[in-house]
Amino acid sequence: MNTINTDLTKSKKTIFPGTFSHLLKYGVYVIFFIMVIFFATKNPRFFTVDNFLLILQQASPLGIVVVGMTFVLVLAGIDISVGRIMFIAASVIGYLLNNTTLLPLALFENVGGYLIVFAICILIGSLVGYVNGALIAKLRIVPFIATLAIGSVIRGIGLTISNSRTPSTTYISGFVNARVFGLPVTLIFFVVIALVFDFILRFTTYGRYLMAIGNSPEMARKTGINVDRNIIIAYILCGALAGLAGALLAGQIGAVSITFGEGNEFIVIAAAVLGGTSLFGGKGSIIPGAIIGIVLVTTIMNGLAMVNASPYIYTIVRGCIIFFAVMVDSINYKGDLR
Amino acid sequence: MIMPDKIMLKMTDIKKSFFGVNVLHGINYDLLKGEIHGLVGENGAGKSTLMNIIGGVLKNEDGHMEIDSTLYDPISPKFATDSGVLFIHQELNLFSNMTVAENMFIDGYPTGFAGKINYKKIRTLATEYIQKYDLPVTPDTKIGTLPMGTRQIIEIAKALMKKARIIIFDEPTTSLSHREKEKLFSTIRQLKASGISIIYISHILEDVFDLCDRVSVLRDGMIIGTRTREKLHKQEIIKMMVGRELDQEYVTFEQRAIGETLLKATGLRQGNMVKDVSVELRSGEIVGLYGLMGAGRTEFVRTLFGVDKKDSGDVFINGEKIEKLSPSLCVGKGMAFITEDRREEGLFMAKSVKDNMIIVKLKDILGKFGIINRKQEQSLVKSAIGSLSVRVGDYNIQPINNLSGGNQQKVVFGKWVLMEPRIFIMDEPTRGVDVGAKFEIYSIIVDMAKKGCSVLMVSSEIEELIGVCDRILVMNKGRISGEIVRPEFNKETIVNLAL
Amino acid sequence: MVYPLFRSYYRRVITLSIKNKRAGNTPAKFVRNNSVFVFLCLAVLLSAIFVPNFFSAYNIKNYFLQASDLLIIACGLTFIVLNGGIDFSVTSVLALGSVVGAYIMALSPLAPYPAFSIPLSIFVTILIGAIVGTINGFSITILKMPSFIATLATQLIFSGIAILFASKVALRASINGLPEPFFIIGGEGKYFLVPIAISASIFFISHFILEYTGFGRNILAVGTNPKASNISGVSVKKTIFILCLLSGVYAGIASVIATSRNQAGIASLGDKMFISIIASIVIGGTSIAGGSGGFKQTLIGVFFITLINNTMNLLGVDWYITMLFQGMLILVAAFADYMMRVRRGSRRG
Question: Are the Cβ atoms of A208 and B107 closer than 8 angstroms?
Fold first, then answer.
């Protein structure tokens, strides 16, 4: 795929006049509020503080992945293996927790055990992220193909580890679902990570380099930026955060089913794009972008559960969210077809 | 002040080859302290390769370099920069999604606690440079909102912020207005006065003669000769560049029969670059379109061909009003268009010469079910290669990116000539083409006109337009500011209209 | 084998004839230039020796039947990939076409009249493909969405609709009770040549379009450089749109055959198939970056992937191991593509 140098692309008129594309942009929020009102009328429990906290708690693990995905999207890359990174990390955790010889349960009497679990997940995620990044940066494989292939490889490995069973991960549930000062632990994780990564993206050299590479990798290379290394780091960060999110989600749910994590990549991408991060690279934010995005998506998913929608509707809604989010992004984009 | 006794950069026996093809055959070159040294040569002579070796972009394979009598072996552009060698590239290296200040400091942000970029500092420093070069921007302006000329100056300002001993300018004036160019030249002279050595590469010989203390000519990967300022002679330099004397730079002008109007555009507007342009092209006529960078010439011809959608105005082809302009429709009406960006928009770089040549004509050689008549395809391509004298091996296999710039441009011409266009629009048809091939391209253009084709030729080189056109339109700030017919051709008048 | 049969035909294809000219007659060169094909032969040989029941008449028939719908759907996607895009939605066409088609034949008011319901069901299935293709084409050309994300979204939407539809009309994910005559299309019993013939004709038509027609050249041109194509008078949007439509229709045809072969409408029909389809295409040597490759490559790739699926199945290997294996093969193929690019010295992608 040709990289597009936006400097050279002639200012082309978008197909829709400015007002209409603005309307489209805010249309997303209008639809969102209509849906919220619909859920609220259908189920009075939807519009409560408890449910709002629940939404934030539900949003947190995937929100962490959205943070990583934002880094990758800013580079004009994409990682569709994140759902499967979550799965493989959770599978390994499930395996370890059910083999007490490998991970003595006594460890979980203090925080040390949890740290080990999270460290393992982050390590696994980083490893997969490194492979993704190397395939994309060094071998120049199109990102969605590289991560698609890696996704199927690691899902196979994950299923081999779990032997197609559903290991229980309730050992870490207590910690993950605990509340500190009334706030869920996962939410605290999410907030801290969002703050740290927002700082990296906004205020550090690395963050500016990501923006530069997303704008034009060729120019970035000529400027002396180590493009390949920065790309690989972004995928490692994305993978590491997905690995951590896998552990947190496994704790939240309490088990790792064979469909664990499947399709999460779509929620994550949809949330990132809804938050204003462009698929075309060079533009994106974590605060508020990634946070708004994941809260919107989770609210809709939560609302669907509240109104007892058919489980099959979820996939359709997810698809629609991605479609409309990307549509708005694309209509505002002034480059060429991709 | 030149110090003839002090050599800043000494290159000895530099060689380089790509895929077994020797590009540089042992370059020996000295750059004195505090001099402006011009480097000229045809495309493919090896200028870029040589400069990329100095700038650390390419690896030095053989021979060695010394700066200030110490060994200099750059392993990366960063290494070169750290050693005080600045390379200002022809193309802009600015990121449109970032601010002026962020761009100026892209290769080394001052950082504080936890790697936090010191924004206050870069804003202050950027403001300093903005004032120094009198730029109409603030440090927080996004590059994407700025015109090209301003960007070019920012690019140069960015480079000059670093400590330099040697600065390489590679065609720095391509998108500058006259005034910006003067400002740049005075900056370069200031740099020289402070003892910095400058290598200045350009195709525009007038600029080189105006600016440089010495000029070296590179041909076929070798330094053919070096002349000091006093001994510069344009004809001699051209002769050195091409290796033969060009008694004639342009085709002799012959009066042609000028016929009916083929293309008419009235009140064309597009974006903020094309404001109310009207032209009329007649058969057998070569019309030049001159204007400074940013005058809207390229935007105008792109709109005329339907590449960019017009906002308002009417276009008539053969007297017929065209409502929805698009490239495919224009091609169907017998229009041809050569873009200024050959690599991105003109050619399929990885594809063969044949595939590139036939693409436009293809629809005319289809039989039943849209099947390509291969015999006809071969004979057409062969005849076009012959008549345009494209130097190519097996045109069925050889990819276009193996050809020289001039030959590539001839293939671009070939693909349009094959369809026998009635209206031919060309944007900088001789850009990046060496002197020898230029002449051949002028002959092709004149031949087309003789056959009754109507040609609209956009160019930045006034001499070229004066050489081949029947009349010249001058564009300024999105409007046609004047029209000059052949008997009244005068360089000064044209430049005045453009300013 | 199949290859020599086709060989004289391919000779006329310019790109390949160059390879043959260069190859001369030395076996080493032949192996190097046709490495995937040589690998395929080796794999067939190994399977024949080591995999029990591989070389049985039943399994060979089964092998070609399995290859037939994969080939059709891969042909549609090959067009898209050559044109520089991707289409994830083909698997959702498989699923939705399958359940809707099966509904018409088994549960709708027309079900008792197979003479009407079968043609109607085939028509509707292909129509679904066309509709999904049209939506994709619209999203990519008019809304200017990147093809991979537009088709990912439509894939989610339509596979969701497929399973929702099945659960609503049949209360489960599959619909049984299809009329007997419909099974001919899927190669039931002595009719096993029917699907093979259908997919072979689709393969030849696709190959013909690419290699011999002006439209085929336009596809490659757009895949190589859309900007230059546009300025050369090639209608880029029209080309992309037609190919999206074509890919959808091909997926619809594949859905008919797969439904018939499975003798049921299955909402999860395409679920794990995408990786096989994309693997078939890239293993043959078609570049995912667009502009280079062809249908001969896809054919070899389809035979290769079907062989893997078939033997893994015979050996009782879990589906996820097969999937893992195919993921690795995609990476290997992409690596080979990278090496080719390095050798050619171009830095695309």
Answer: no
